[in-house]
Write a structure and sequence with these properties.
It is built from 7 helices and 7 strands. It has helices spanning 9-16, 30-33, 39-55, 93-102, 145-148, 174-184, 201-205, and strands at 2-6, 21-27, 61-67, 86-90, 107-109, 111-119, 125-129. A 4-stranded parallel sheet has the order 3-2-4-5, with helices on both faces. A 3-stranded antiparallel sheet has the order 1-6-7. The model has no long low-confidence stretch (mean pLDDT 93). The structure holds iron/sulfur cluster (2 copies).
Length: 218
């Protein structure tokens, strides 16, 4: 899922302070699961913003609603019935983008969109994919070097690996993990295969993708 995290309240306040009536719009899909954009988070953020604005002597009004999905036009139509002069989106970047396209008022992001991740237990996700557009997981035993290696290198490890840890000190070396898993899969020889440089134009090619004529498959 898309993993998101709420921005600091002060940062959000500085974005919306010039407006008088701000509508907070949550998203009941990834953002809600990430505990950042569901009903509870919308209500909590409204109270926090009211308190912070009151302390600053501002009179901004806040109201809220939660859409099933901010990234699909069908779900955002009923916002027209609301009274607001700005929207604060508690959705991922795609939600903010679609709301901005649909609304004739400014839309601000209350969240930072971090990565595509897999659950590691309650309220915990690990980055697994950066949507690079050309997947190499078949060669790397399902561990993404673009995402999990601090340098995103396609043929590692680099010289900074130390006892299986990345030189950044915040993670195991992705390339040691790749080697270990290939060994477990009895494919250690695959580690010697050179992964060719990525064609980064693929990513820009996919700035729009319509699969409707392909039955969803290629
Ligand atoms: S190689 Fe690219 S598409 Fe595959 S998991 Fe990594 S970032 Fe995602
Ligand atoms: S130590 Fe490993 S994870 Fe860290 S940058 Fe080098 S190859 Fe990537």
């Amino acid at each position: 899922m898309i993993v998101v995290r709420q921005k600091p309240v002060e940062e959000i306040c500085s974005m919306v302070a010039r407006h008088r009536n701000v509508l907070l719009v949550g998203c009941n899909t990834c953002a809600a699961v990430a505990l950042a954009g569901g009903e509870k988070e919308v209500d909590t953020l409204i109270e926090l913003l009211k308190l912070t604005m009151r302390r600053k002597g501002e009179t901004t009004e806040f109201s809220g609603c939660v859409l099933q999905r901010q990234c699909e036009p069908e779900f955002i139509e009923h916002l027209d019935d609301r009274v607001y002069d700005a929207i604060l989106s508690l959705g991922c970047g795609a939600g903010v983008a679609l709301l901005s396209e649909s609304a004739d008022k400014p839309v601000y992001p209350a969240l930072d969109t971090l990565f595509i991740g897999a659950s590691q237990g309650f309220a915990s996700w690990r980055a697994e994919c950066s949507a690079c557009g050309k997947c190499v997981l078949g060669q790397t035993a399902g561990i993404c070097p673009v995402t999990r290696c601090a340098k995103g290198i396609l043929n590692g490890p680099c010289g900074g690996v130390n006892n299986g840890q990345c030189e950044l000190g915040d993670r195991p070396c992705a390339w040691v993990e790749i080697y270990d898993r290939l060994e477990t899969l009895e494919r250690p020889e695959d580690f010697k295969e050179i992964i060719q440089p990525k064609d980064n134009s693929v990513k820009t090619t996919y700035n729009k993708l319509d699969l409707s004529g392909e039955g969803g498959a290629r």
